[in-house]
Design brief:
Layout lengths: L1 E6 L4 E6 L18 E4 L10 H12 L8 E6 L5 E6 L6 H10 L7
Antiparallel strand pairs: 1-2, 1-3, 4-5
The protein binds zinc ion.
Length: 109
């Protein structure tokens, strides 16, 4: 397990070992801004793929950092909550808007 640190502006991503509990910032080596830490599940698009990067940026701005998002969250009569089916992260802006709307309760605040 690890993180990917990503600079959306430079479209650059680096693998990071897991470093929990640290709020250390990793400045981007190109622009010097702090990089965004994303789940290791994040697959960076090609540098030239504007649409996909636009989608990534949109999702992050809306609190989706490529952590698991569940299609269904149910609480049964015993008060036990179950999480079912991971949702797939969209790779185009149209699907991303739907995704954000549908799963906004699961967004990171
Ligand atoms: Zn940068």
């Amino acid at each position: 397990m690890g993180y990917k640190s990503v600079c959306i502006d430079c479209r650059k991503s680096l693998n990071r070992p897991l470093d929990t509990g640290s709020d250390r910032l990793y400045p981007c080596s190109l622009c010097g801004k702090p990089m965004t830490l994303l789940s290791h599940r994040f697959r960076p698009p090609k540098k030239t793929d504007d649409k996909k990067w636009e989608t990534v940026k949109y999702l992050i701005e809306n609190g989706f950092y490529y952590d698991h998002v569940y299609q269904k969250i149910e609480t049964n009569c015993n008060g036990v909550t179950s999480y079912q089916n991971y949702a797939t992260y969209p790779d185009n802006i149209r699907d991303a808007k739907e995704f954000v709307e549908k799963y906004k309760e699961q967004a990171r605040k």
